[in-house]
Amino acid sequence: MQTSTRSELLLKRSLAAIWHPCTQMKQHESLPLVPVARAEGCWLHDFDGRRYLDAVSSWWVNLFGHCNPRINAAIADQLGTLEHVLLAGFSHEPAVALSERLARATGGRLGHCFYASDGASAVEIALKMSFHYWRNMGRPRKTRFVSLAGSYHGETLGALAVTDVRLFKDTYAPLLISSDQVVSPDWRLAERGESPRDYAGRCAQALERHLEQYHDVIAALIVEPLVQGATGMAMHDAEYLRMARAACDRYQVHLIADEIMTGFGRTGTFFAHEQAGITPDFLLLSKGITGGYLPLSVVMTRDAVYQAFYDDDVARGFLHSHSYTGNALACRAATATLDIFEQDRVIEVNRATSARLTSAASVIAQHPRVKHFRSIGMIWAFEVETADPQFSQRFFASALERELLLRPLGNTVYFMPPYVIGGDEIELLVQRCAALLDALPAA
Ligand SMILES: Cc1ncc(COP(=O)(O)O)c(C=O)c1O
Questions:
Q1: Any atom of ligand 1 within 6 Å of the Cβ of 162
Q2: Helices 423-438 & 391-401, crossing angle to 10 degrees?
Q3: 296 CB less than 6 Å from ligand 1?
Q4: pLDDT of 126 strictly over 70
Q5: Which residues of 12-23 are buried (b: 16+ CB within 10 A; e: fewer)?
Q6: pLDDT value at residue 413
Q7: Could you tell me if the CB of 251 is within 6 A of ligand 1?
Q8: What's the whole-number average pLDDT of the chain?
């Protein structure tokens, strides 16, 4: 079969059989789906010889490139031994090894791992666990959750309840438990002349006032440390996390660090919260945990939380489960990912990659259509001055024509490439993105 015919047929079948995620399907009448035949390193390839640089790491999950030989080999090896077994009442080496290694990565402070499959299910677990902890401790009135303005924690009902992105939330509002939002420390909102750190301090004081007033009924504060991703890569100073940790301690409120996007080196340290020198009560990880291969998420917590559930009474236990909890193939992909971190000194090497991309991107930072160019670790973002309400879709489509996979969030364009992006790929990404900006119609 001719390759283009194969491509067309696949897209036709896809539109007939698949309800694609986060999509108004009617838009595909004018914006074609992109067929992917195979992928390698930072590149996605279609059936017709076209290729796309995956500058968003396939929704922020890929760390070491597509079809990574080392992760492939680990999964293939695991396939021959044990693919999956229930984790209730049973255990296996990949889940145990992964839990031990993750606990070590937190300096042993978060020694208990509870597994699920996607980011949103980890959020659900943390919210339930926090509430249940307080209930077990004789504080059943602690039922409310606090999150930051603009926060994103996923799309299931509990996760959406603490999310604050109107497009995703408004329709389902009648179904959601209510939660409180405090002002975001996003440094773009600082007053003129106010430093990101001073602004973070001012926002933390607002949080403190909120907790002071309502702590009796608040179970937890949930935060995306350092970068609020889906709202538009809003970045904040680590001071906010330090002060939030202190306020949570003062008012006996849990701190949930949602590192589903920021974990595994994305912000330049292995976990983002390390940059504030704090330990959360719950740490949520997913996305990069398997190097972008398989769905896996984990809620890590402290011994004090674990002990509050440990009892002769079954109902005081955490009776939550998902069928694929602790899937052996996913856990093995995750330990292979951790091996790469250690063997390749990834955090150190990323520092050089990050500096190189930042330097190459000066052409974008100085572009007349660009505002608020910012970066941390392996994330870069900027706003484009445009009056076009369809900007994000149009930019996405034009980027594809230049072999780039970029998915702007509104008028925020960001790069979140796999860590293995090479020098030539950095140049290609930056130069072609600059050309896209040059080609924009007048604002
Ligand atoms: C910070 C954060 N939390 C939670 C989620 C939800 O994860 P998932 O899409 O795997 O359910 C995301 C997804 O982008 C996220 O960025």
A1: no
A2: 130
A3: no
A4: yes
A5: eeeeeeeeeeee
A6: 98
A7: no
A8: 97
